[in-house]
Structures are given as structure tokens and as C-alpha cells.
Amino acid sequence: MELIVLQDARRFATGIDQAPCDGCDACGARCTAGVPMLRPEFEAIQAYLAGPEGAEGRRVEQEDKQAPYPGTDDVFYTACRFRDIERGRCSIYPVRPLVCRLFGHVEWLPCPIEKVPAVPGALEMMRRYGEAPQKTYEEWLADQPAA
Ligand code: SF4
């Protein structure tokens, strides 16, 4: 069931015009710790990190994740472990979870600078996706048997 939901969700997200987001990082501060994801998404990230293309992600995981909110220097938040604080981008972009792909395109996660409109059907897709079991990356990691 999870895989079907994920396939549908990825197909939906792939059909969204991401052109307005190209080069924009206005929603970067929303990349906070605790992003929920399905197990297959967690496994895809792990596989990505294990390969040569995951070198940047492995480096970024070691960064200090306390970052100031844009426009402040004394209000801090904890960024997602894959958020590249120094370069202002996602270090696992090709395998980022669905919630990241839909950010800015659905009413629940609106574009902070109102640059992109909500996509018809995104809310329904989000609801279906939300019914499948989800945990944070750290929680899925903790569930794994010790090596
Ligand atoms: S996985 Fe990438 S896009 Fe998603 S919250 Fe983390 S840094 Fe942001």
C-alpha cells in the first residue's frame, strides 16, 4: 500500500511545474528537523547517501543544524539534517520526501512569498499520503536493528 501511495504521490509531484522554484530558496527556513516520511522514502535516502552521489549529503549531516531565522541573528531553529546551511539548499534533492516536493504547491504548505499557486488535487494527494505510516528519518533509523 505504501509503495502504491508513494508511486502515485511521486507521479503527481513530477507533474507540478517547478520552474518558479528554480534558484529560489525562500522556503528554505521551512526545512526544519522532523520531516515525516514513508519507509520507502527513508530507504531511498539511505541508498542515496550510501552511493557516490550522497557525498554532499553525508557532509551536510555533520553540519551544526542550529541556524538563525532569515532576517534575524538571535532567533534560532533546528534545520533538517539534510539542509545545507552553508549553501542554502537540500543535499538529497533527488530523493527528498513528498512533503518537500509539495511544499509551496498545496494549501497546507503555501509558498511563503506567494510566488506559486496551489496545485489542484495536491490537497487530496497530501491526505492520501498522510494516511500511510510515517516517521521522521531519525525514528526510522532508530527502528533499524543494530548492525
Ligand atoms: S529533505 Fe531536503 S527539502 Fe526536505 S526538509 Fe530536508 S533539506 Fe528541506
Main sheet record: 2 strands, antiparallel
Residue fraction in strands? 5-15%
- Count helical runs: 6
DSSP strand count: 8
- The order of strands across the largest sheet is 1-8
Class derived from helix and strand content: alpha+beta
Query: Helix fraction?
Result: 25-40%
State the order of secondary-structure elements, H for helix, E for strand: HEHHEEEEHEEHEH
Number of domains: 1
What is the CA–CA distance across the termini? 28 Å
Oligomer: single chain
Cα-atom Rg, whole angstroms?
15 Å
- Chain-averaged pLDDT: 90
Inertia-based shape: globular
Give a short summary of the structure.
With 147 residues, this protein is of the alpha+beta class.
Task: Describe the protein in words.
With 147 residues, the chain is α+β, with helices and mostly antiparallel strands. It has one domain. 37% of the residues lie in helices and 12% in strands. It is built from 6 helices and 8 strands. It has helices spanning 2-14, 39-50, 55-61, 98-102, 122-131, 137-143; strands at 36-37, 66-68, 76-78, 83-84, 89-90, 105-106, 109-110, 135-136. The strands form 4 sheets. A two-stranded antiparallel ribbon has the order 1-8. A two-stranded antiparallel ribbon has the order 2-3. Strands 4-5 form a two-stranded antiparallel sheet. Strand 4 and strand 5 (89-90) form a beta hairpin. Helix 1 (2-14) runs antiparallel to helix 5 (122-131). The two termini are 28 Å apart. 24% of the residues are buried. The mean pLDDT is 90. The structure holds iron/sulfur cluster.
